[in-house]
Write a structure and sequence with these properties.
CATH topology of the largest domain: Tetracycline Repressor, domain 2
Order of helices and strands: HHHHHHHHHHHHH
Strand content: under 5%
Number of domains: 2
CATH superfamily of the largest domain: Tetracycline Repressor, domain 2
CATH architecture of the largest domain: Orthogonal Bundle
Oligomer: single chain
């Protein structure tokens, strides 16, 4: 939402860029997300984004009051990529739907591995994020979970996905698993017999860790629901 009083920088930029055509919001957000994907969350600023757009910061202040508002829109654009058909979710049990929602969000964040730090700055409240939250809570409530458990279940799933999204952000080195595996295989049998006993399964791929942990969470929710 545009701010009623623009910073001095924006006012000056308005004078410099008067007459420039407006930049469509969709192009701004696409460029902002591309900037984050390529250079990381810390690179996203009003000035840097304006330079990428070959425009002035006043162009951005027409759409966003500040960087926080810009981040809200960028995050929500990512949430909008989650492939969640409400008709498909309606045909699933609550635990199957939770698994599908969490996996879809994990896959989406996997396509934008550098977005996670922005998710840590604020609670997603954009339209797409609200729809996603609503669908997940509706599934949990329709499955018979009481409101307090449904709220905690969603919060736990969201934090779990975010935690793994942060891990995704730091998993760009494809050679690291091989280095870790080689290290585990050459540890001292006397000091680390248990490590060597499971060495063929180490390190566990991040995607497998996510799926396994998700099953533990959903299994725990089933037990709580059964009580």
């Amino acid at each position: 939402m545009p701010s009623s009083s623009l910073p001095a920088e924006a006012t000056a930029s308005t004078r410099r860029s008067r007459g420039r055509p407006a930049v469509p919001l969709d192009r701004i957000l696409a460029t902002a997300l591309q900037l984050v994907d390529e250079e990381g969350a810390e690179a996203l600023s009003m000035r840097t984004l304006a330079q990428r757009l070959e425009s002035g910061t006043a162009t951005l202040y027409r759409h966003f009051g500040n960087r926080a508002a810009l981040i809200t829109h960028v995050i929500d654009r990512v949430f909008g990529e989650a492939d969640l058909d409400p008709r498909v979710l309606a045909e699933l049990s609550w635990d199957q739907a939770c698994r599908a929602i969490a996996q879809s969000m994990f896959d989406t964040l996997g396509r934008h591995r550098k977005i996670a730090p922005l998710l840590m700055e604020q609670t997603p409240t954009g339209p797409n994020a609200m729809v996603l939250r609503e669908r997940c809570l509706a599934v949990l409530l329709a499955g018979g979970l009481p409101p307090s458990l449904a709220a905690r279940a969603y919060a736990t799933l969201a934090r779990y996905v975010l935690g793994f999204a942060i891990q995704l952000a730091g998993s760009g080195d494809d050679a690291e698993p091989e280095r870790a595996s080689a290290h585990f295989r050459h540890v001292s049998p006397a000091e680390f017999p248990a490590t060597l006993a499971v060495v063929d399964s180490l390190p566990v791929p991040l995607e497998d860790e996510f799926a396994f942990g998700l099953e533990l969470i959903i299994g725990g929710l089933r037990q709580l629901d059964a009580r």
